[in-house]
Design a protein that fits this description.
It comes from Xanthomarina gelatinilytica. Keywords: Membrane, Transmembrane, Transmembrane helix. This is Chloroplast import component protein (Tic20). By secondary structure, this protein is mostly helical. The chain has six helices and no strands. The chain has one domain. Helix 3 packs antiparallel against helix 4 and helix 4 runs antiparallel to helix 5.
């Protein structure tokens, strides 16, 4: 794992320099795929499993949390539908973040998703 990947994982990316194009290029593709349905998430997980990229891992954890939230609240009538609209908006924010090349935690639950799913 490169030094830049380690910086992503230990949280020092926030105050660090810009990342190399290599780390972003490889991770960005996987991060975008992770946002495309559960099948896309599985493909991204397998792609990232061989050569870990911390940028991709960050967005794999984010999208997993969003998808699980949508799944859980889809069984709750009316209130769940309203909450799922919020999750959809958060999904769009996360997708835009993955496209921009920056690590952006989603509002409210982003830090928790990173902690809960750290093994991914």
């Amino acid at each position: 794992m490169s030094e830049e990947n380690k910086n992503f994982e230990d949280g020092t990316y926030q105050n660090g320099p810009k990342y190399s194009n290599e780390v972003l290029k490889d991770g960005k593709t996987i991060a975008i795929i992770a946002h495309m349905t559960i099948i896309g998430w599985i493909i991204a997980f397998v792609m990232n499993h061989n050569a870990k990229n911390a940028y991709a891992s960050f967005y794999i954890r984010q999208s997993l949390g969003i998808m699980l939230g949508i799944l859980i609240f889809s069984f709750v009538p009316v209130i769940g539908w309203i909450v799922n609209v919020g999750f959809f908006i958060i999904w769009i924010i996360s997708l835009i973040g993955s496209l921009s090349g920056e690590l952006r935690h989603i509002p409210f639950l982003g830090n928790q998703f990173q902690e809960w799913f750290h093994s991914f």
